[in-house]
Amino acid sequence: MIQDYWTASNGVLDMYGTPKPGAAPYITQFNARSIFLEDGLELTYVSNDRLAVDISLSNFGEGALPVGTKITWSILLNGEAIKTETVATSKPVPQGELGVVASIDFQLPDVGTSASVAVGATPGPKSVTVTAAFAEPSTLTPAPLNSWNATLFPRWVSGPSPGKLPIRVTDAALQEQCGFNDCEISSAEPVASSPGVFLTTTINGALVQRAQEGSVVVLIQRDSTGVFKSAATRFKQAWWVGNAVDNNAGTLVYDDAAPVLGGMANDHYGDQSWYLLRPPIVLVMQIRTGGGTTDSQLVCSHGCVLAGAGIT
Questions:
Q1: pTM of the full predicted structure?
Q2: Given this model, what pLDDT does residue 300 score?
Q3: Cα dist. 111→97, 116, 154, 166, 298 in Å?
Q4: Which residue, 52, 132, 223, 266, shows the most beta carbons closer than 10 Å to its own?
Q5: Which SS3 state, helix, strand or coil, does residue 306 take?
């Protein structure tokens, strides 16, 4: 979207029509009639994984992309190219269509394992960037270089936990989620001899007592339905006032904060994004025309901004 609206915050412009810092310059790098796209890139990889990606061209240029057009793709690791290749297209890409112009199949390097690289160490995760561009400028279907990012992690291997606290699971089935080979099975009863980290899918009195005595209790989701009762909500821009069944996530002021914020939040809605509205700009809610309540017509709702209006 060009501008943020309702449940989305992915616009180039914010809800006031102002370009977002950093977003607009980034998007204009590849905003064109024709653009390179990828399919198959994972968000994360581990040592020696294979990276398999198809590069396509969304062609809305002046004509078809002919067979034999040369495409250059590269794979960068922490900004340094580790593989670059120029290939010729084997099929045309008609105008107004999407077509594959290059395929990448590459084994990523070995960046160590969880046993050889300490958790949080600088030589740990590395950024992987895939780029694609025309080897030579195309007059019929010009398209800028495009790039996509992933992260390469050391491969995990089972080993002893590095922490000082022993890790305990309340069910043998949780040992796979422990991640280490020295996890103990414990029901938290009787009282453990020393504090530890408990992995569990349920909370009981014994675990609460262990936490009070200095242990850490980690509640793991049992299945896709979750472990806590919850109410669904969606993020919305703060100008969307919401109602009893249409929540406005992130702008509700709870009762215990009312002594501090109550005077700033009408009807418990904080609407902090209105801060940028300075006089003489007025936020108007629900302008009606027609002169009567019966024949009134709603022509503006949920935040119409009138610039230059006077306040009396």
A1: 0.61
A2: 35
A3: 39, 9, 5, 28, 61
A4: 132
A5: strand
